[in-house]
């Protein structure tokens, strides 16, 4: 574990901010490529700069991060005019999926945070210096990060990927067998070719048939090369505008819009959104009747999909129970409609218990919940070992927790799905995976990964 923190005390000042929703709200602050972002609909947090950073690898990464954060907060001098979730000191973070990954899990303490929640907006300045924090100083600091104030929406759209247009061809490595159009880009398979990945799915199904495990989530990566370059800020604005039901995240080059909430803590209430079971909305094109009736029939009516979902909900509720005084979950999953896919979804709500006089922190909960069956499998250890054997890649931050936490114990941590890592200014690695159960068919799972790549491909201007 390493930390860039100096020994000085953290000071923070939170003041109300006048954000004119007509000028674009939170997305209008997504103008820098190094921005830290967490946003859904009109709400969210955007962070600028970096005061301190914690990094770690290994099985204790969540608990080490928890200790680092609690130590930082313990002596902090906090002046907070709003005192709502997300005000006061805030850190953004992203954690590696695997306890064996060399990828650095991280918490980043920004210098400036802009937040909006239910129509209330605020600005927080953080410092480790002795200087006094004032409202005028905080506004001046914000203007240094976002020089022209809130840019107009029209200005923001100028580098919109939807405007670009050119042919796409395969690049060195294994070309992916998918028709693409839109912006000039090349796509190549990552660690496994499509054929090898389908073989991995078939091998996974064979393992499930031996009875060693019930469910396994297998993922794959593809590499997009964009000669015109990639702007993280543009990708985030695109995702936030299109995937409003999802949580759009941006931390250190990891970008995406996840529909899955691992854990959201507000005071003593914890909530999760568990997803498993997917149907490509394009499958409904040309089918008689309403698309939703099709989803009801084919997704909610499928025994395989419901079984996959049941395993995911069981794993979450079993792990959350020891931390909860009371818990409720939908008895029946609902259908979550996203622009690309439908999912079987269940929301779980729990009242957190006092454990030795303390409500469990976000990171303690994540330590217990991750990895859920929605991204790993059941039993966890067997599935985890098989993932390492069959995927032939390090997932890095893909399918790991991503989100933020504040000094009062509130936070939101999604699972980093439907996302990508911007590796350099022209290269983006996209990830997608599928729950594999006994009835899974490799070709159908491959098609599902393409549906799950779609949010990122679209936001890069690549139409699939
Ligand atoms: C692993 C992914 O999705 C998970 C979340 C929702 C539905 C899933 C499924 O139906 O397979 C996956 O469990 C991914 O998007 O990469």
TrEMBL record:
It comes from Arthrobacter cavernae. It catalyses: chorismate = isochorismate. This is isochorismate synthase. Keywords: Isomerase. Signal peptide: none annotated. Residues 194-452 form the Chorismate-utilising enzyme C-terminal domain. Belongs to the isochorismate synthase family. It comes from the Bacteria. Its EC number is 5.4.4.2. InterPro entries: ADC_synthase, Chorismate_C, IsoChor_synthase.
